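Is this the right way to post structure tokens for a design question? Let me know if I should format differently. Anyway, here goes:
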């Protein structure tokens, strides 16, 4: 063999590395993929011929294929968990054989929620296996006693070995399996520490296989990264059936559950919970948490109705405009996007002539609510103008609309649902975009006024009783 041929053979035999997410290849290992920029996804390739297709012999089938009309759907119907807010997000409950991934920041209440769900399922006569790799069984017992989650059908084990976890499943044969968390379990057959890409992939694949073969619903707890995404390989989110995000500020008792992926239901539902020392409780009507209890109108406050998925929530926005003592005035927000505030203040100054360049502006929401959709722009603008002019808005007024850079009030989605929620809470007046007035079903007892621009909205907001509304219900 010539020298050139020997070099080619040596190069071909040299192991390569491939990204498990996008397929990018490299001659040397790298901690971060050079193509998709994912961390920890570059693994050693299988060597020469590893990328070539392999022939698999045909195997006997477990059951013959049947016409789709003859398939029974009874086994695929969701079963209620007993927690109404969780069932709302899941689409009715847990489906047999479904695998749900619940992700959230540390301390948000994931374990407390799942322990409550496990106890409610156990009280219904079904066996539940709760395996934790983060806490001891004594710690789980203390929390269960505090929130009233004690039941003989709820079995607890603390394990970190995958083979032992599968052994518990074989022994208990549960109707519901909860694993807290998938990043703490490791397999002895796979190299790497628990929480690594290879370990998470192996653990999740083994648990999913057990769930599908037994028609056993499984709930996996997952950690999140600094940017809020689910930690571990992206394939984990593709393998599971439902991905839920549990969100909440640690300084607030309010928690929100959202489904970012759901094969059995909608992904635009939101569940609200109240987390306290006594446990976690679903909030069927959380709007009262986001409104102040003041009975007298206060300058600088305005209420709006936002949509969390398909759920309308009434939220109060408070603004405080005060003379600045520094060359660069402060713009401080809590619960409101700072960039939206800067845009609204610029529109107020340019289109309405409001002098805000030498004023400090502080904006906050009540109850720790987070307002991110543009429909709250109008309420934010009216609150800032009210604080600047020391003028309070009329009692029972809500404002809904997006503010454009030209000062126009743009239409937003779901105006009818927002108004229905406002009317249910006792509000009698609403300012909405003029484009949404036509064909709008106005709730009984509510006066709805349309505003085409911000100047008209400010004029209508300070209306007296002799102002004729555009539409009256």
């Amino acid at each position: 063999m010539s020298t050139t041929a020997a070099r080619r053979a040596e190069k071909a035999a040299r192991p390569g590395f491939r990204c498990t997410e996008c397929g990018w290849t490299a001659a040397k290992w790298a901690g971060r993929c050079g193509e998709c920029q994912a961390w920890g996804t570059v693994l050693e390739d299988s060597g020469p011929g590893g990328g070539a297709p392999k022939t698999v012999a045909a195997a006997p089938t477990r059951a013959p294929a049947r016409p789709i009309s003859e398939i029974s759907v009874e086994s695929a119907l969701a079963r209620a968990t007993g927690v109404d807010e969780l069932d709302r997000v899941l689409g009715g409950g847990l489906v047999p054989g479904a695998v749900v991934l619940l992700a959230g920041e540390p301390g948000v209440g994931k374990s407390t929620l799942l322990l409550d769900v496990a106890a409610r399922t156990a009280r219904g006569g079904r066996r539940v296996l709760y395996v934790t790799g983060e806490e001891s069984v004594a710690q789980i017992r203390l929390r269960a006693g505090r929130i009233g989650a004690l039941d003989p059908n709820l079995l607890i084990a603390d394990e970190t070995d995958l083979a032992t976890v599968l052994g518990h499943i074989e022994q208990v044969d549960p109707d519901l399996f909860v694993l807290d968390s998938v990043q703490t379990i490791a397999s002895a057959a796979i190299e790497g520490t628990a929480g690594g890409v290879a370990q998470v992939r192996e653990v999740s694949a083994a648990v999913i296989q057990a769930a599908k073969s037994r028609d056993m619903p499984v709930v996996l707890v997952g950690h999140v990264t600094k940017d809020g995404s689910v930690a571990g390989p992206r394939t984990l989110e593709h393998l599971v059936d439902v991905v839920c995000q549990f969100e909440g500020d640690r300084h607030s008792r309010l928690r929100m559950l959202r489904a970012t992926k759901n094969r059995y239901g909608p992904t635009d539902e939101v569940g609200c919970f109240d987390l306290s020392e006594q446990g976690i409780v679903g909030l069927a009507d959380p709007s009262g948490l986001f409104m102040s209890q003041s009975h007298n109108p206060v300058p600088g406050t305005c209420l709006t109705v936002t949509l969390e998925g398909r759920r309308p929530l009434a939220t109060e926005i408070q603004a405080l405009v005060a003379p600045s003592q520094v060359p660069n005035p402060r713009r401080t927000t809590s619960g409101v996007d700072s960039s939206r505030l800067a845009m609204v203040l610029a529109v107020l100054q340019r289109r309405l002539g409001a002098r805000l360049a030498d004023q400090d502006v502080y904006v906050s929401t009540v109850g720790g609510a987070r307002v991110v959709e543009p429909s709250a722009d109008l309420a934010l603008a009216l609150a800032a103008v009210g604080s600047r002019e020391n003028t309070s808005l009329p009692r029972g007024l809500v404002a809904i609309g997006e503010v454009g850079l030209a000062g126009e009030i743009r239409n937003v989605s779901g105006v009818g649902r927002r108004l229905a929620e406002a009317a249910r809470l006792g509000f009698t007046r609403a300012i909405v975009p003029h484009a949404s007035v036509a064909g709008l079903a106005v709730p009984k007892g509510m006066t709805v006024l349309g505003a085409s621009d911000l100047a008209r909205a400010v004029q209508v907001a300070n209306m007296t009783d002799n102002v004729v509304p555009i539409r009256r219900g």
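Format looks fine. Someone answered above. Worth noting: The CA atoms of residues 102 and 244 lie 5 Å apart. The radius of gyration is 28 Å.
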